Q: What sequence folds into this?
């Protein structure tokens, strides 16, 4: 199975990198950019047999290590490789 | 007093810390490799600065799972003194021994410079040699020192007098201009509720000798040694 995991800063947490990218886009002339948030994307390959079996494990991985719950949210999708 | 300096792969202030406690303050000191699963008896543990595990994922995130951290946690619960400096502070945050998290500096730049700290609490084993309002000059050197915590916990930190240092100007005024990294309320160092764990971004071990031109960091080590609280 393949878990695609997205970790982003929580809403309300200032994202200085996102702001810098936003300003850069604006300076390129993209004047309709309302907001940019940067995050991390991870691919985790798993030897479990189905999404149902993988899901609680991936959730646990996110809580324990992949995201910091103080400042970050996560979401993921699990598919066949 | 006996100090243990925890060494992670990528720690780079471990020798500075060891040198200061061993040679400047003439205390017992040992390095403790992060793979150790047993901790000898120490009075104070130092988690030094550096880039444990290359700061991969997040600073301190992987160091949290080093075998020695289980023992560090137990040591903390038993009331042992722990000083986390810079990356050591980040490890303590990731380990939940201290509340909050570090984000990238507001400027998105690695900042390495001397600045000023206002001492906010003097009734801790780490600051008892000072007085509230003292202004200390210390260097910082970090990319992720932008302290963040939720409102409720921030309130608790204030109410329980857990904020020990704030960035300030040379007069001791805590201003936005004196905040190098965007840290909430200029927070540079906090302790836990029980006051036996201190995490701070500035480096006292880099300013504890006259030959280095600044001895303001001595206050931290002298307080620890004087406190005796950690001697069990």
A:
């Amino acid at each position: 199975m393949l878990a695609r995991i997205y970790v982003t800063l929580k809403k309300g947490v200032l994202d200085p990198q996102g702001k810098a990218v936003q300003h850069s886009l604006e300076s390129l002339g993209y004047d309709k950019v309302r907001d940019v948030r940067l995050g991390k994307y991870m691919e985790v390959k798993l030897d479990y047999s189905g999404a149902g079996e993988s899901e609680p494990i991936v959730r646990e991985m996110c809580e324990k290590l992949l995201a910091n719950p103080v400042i970050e949210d996560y979401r993921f999708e699990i598919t066949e490789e | 007093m006996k100090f243990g300096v925890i060494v992670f792969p990528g720690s780079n202030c471990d020798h500075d810390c060891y040198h200061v406690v061993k040679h400047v303050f003439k205390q017992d000191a040992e390095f403790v490799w992060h793979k150790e699963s047993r901790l000898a008896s120490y009075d104070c543990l130092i988690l030094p600065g550096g880039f444990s595990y290359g700061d991969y994922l997040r600073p301190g995130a992987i160091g949290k799972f080093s075998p020695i951290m289980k023992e560090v946690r137990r040591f903390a619960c038993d009331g042992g003194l722990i000083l986390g400096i810079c990356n050591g502070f980040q490890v303590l945050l990731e380990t939940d021994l201290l509340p909050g998290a570090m984000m990238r500096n507001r400027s998105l730049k690695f900042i390495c410079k001397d600045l000023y700290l206002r001492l906010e609490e003097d009734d801790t084993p780490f600051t008892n040699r000072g007085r509230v309002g003292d202004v200390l000059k210390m260097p910082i050197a970090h990319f992720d020192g932008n302290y963040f915590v939720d409102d409720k916990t921030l309130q608790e930190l204030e109410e329980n007098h857990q904020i020990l240092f704030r960035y300030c100007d040379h007069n001791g005024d805590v201003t936005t201009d004196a905040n190098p990294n965007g840290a909430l309320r200029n927070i540079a160092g906090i302790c836990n509720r029980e006051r036996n764990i201190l995490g701070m971004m500035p480096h006292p071990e880099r300013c504890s000798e006259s030959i280095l031109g600044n001895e303001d960091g001595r206050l931290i080590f002298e307080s620890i040694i004087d406190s005796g609280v950690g001697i069990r």
Observations:
- Helices of chain B lie at 14-24, 68-77, 87-94, 151-159, 218-227.
- Residues 2-227 of chain B form a domain with the Rossmann fold fold (CATH 3.40.50.880).
- Chain B has a mean pLDDT of 96.
